[in-house]
Amino acid sequence: MSIENFIVEKVKSANIKFTRAQQLVADYVLKNSDKFTYMTANQIAKEVGVSETTVIRFSLTLGYRRFSDLQDELRQLVIEDRTVQRLQKTQRNVKEGQILNASFEHDMKNLQKSLEQIDEFEFNDVVKLICGAKHTYIIGLRSSLTDAYYLAFSLNAMLGNVEAVTDNGLALESCLLNATKDCVVICFSFTRFTAITLEALQYIKKNNQCKVVTITDSVRSPAIQYSDYVFIMNIDSLTPIDSHVSSIAFSNALIAAIGQRQNEKVEENLNTLESYFKQVKTFYDN
């Protein structure tokens, strides 16, 4: 459903008659739906030229208990609308049979934009933190699961003290209970921002006092407020599903940098693993 249809349906269902000031707020929502989802009521009021109370009453008039409830529902609509638009744009602009090259070129642009946004000094600080950490927990749920598992699998083979948290089960409980100020938590959190991930970060930052590193796709990510280091990835895609190429590339850079910094330890751990793999015949042997 489009934002326009959403507002119209709300007005019809509640038999609403807006005041002139509320009509100004409605017009602002229609023209700036994306901005509306992350601005405060006070910020919106200043831009529209009405009182903060008017903005809040606008949401109450539409049937919401809180202004934030309206923002939450609009945020989902904006995301869904953007997903459909992305697919339609691909259908219009990319000819059949050209999608392979177009997709690779799109991801190369994502990689370049992501690289330009990374602070190399902060990147090096994070490498030092991980190398010196007592334990590293890597959180990623739903679409971020692959990112978290790949980085955790690679770093644990190298360092031996890394754990993937990819659901709200025992691994998450272990993280919440055992993470301390000597530990590092790395979080992958992309648009739509899984609630469990955010609740875990909030708890960890408040109670465990460990360093939090967040890999996300937006400066509006709610995970940022709980993070000590933030890296923004471009995840734009020609499909309805976001591209995680930049995120995986960032993980590869971390893996390479940590391998370089902890060369002897990594080599020893990898040799131990290889010896075990041979002993139990983990891999197919011709």
Automatic annotation (TrEMBL):
Sequence intervals crossing the membrane? none
Q: Which GO terms describe its molecular function?
A: carbohydrate derivative binding; DNA binding; DNA-binding transcription factor activity
Boundaries of every HTH rpiR-type domain copy: 5-81
Query: What GO biological process terms are annotated to this protein in UniProt?
Result: carbohydrate derivative metabolic process
Q: Supply the InterPro entries for this chain.
A: Homeodomain-like_sf (IPR009057), HTH_RpiR (IPR000281), RpiR-like (IPR047640), RpiR-like_SIS (IPR035472), SIS_dom (IPR001347), SIS_dom_sf (IPR046348), WH-like_DNA-bd_sf (IPR036388)
Keyword DNA-binding included in the entry's annotation: yes
Q: Which domain of life is it from?
A: Bacteria
Q: Where is the SIS domain?
A: 126-265
Keywords assigned by UniProt, alphabetized: DNA-binding, Transcription, Transcription regulation
> Which sequence ranges form a coiled-coil region, renumbered to this chain?
none
Check the record and name the PROSITE patterns matching this protein. Answer: HTH_RPIR, SIS
Q: What is this protein called?
A: DNA-binding MurR/RpiR family transcriptional regulator
The organism encoding this protein is: Texcoconibacillus texcoconensis
Q: What is the lineage of its organism?
A: Bacteria, Bacillati, Bacillota, Bacilli, Bacillales
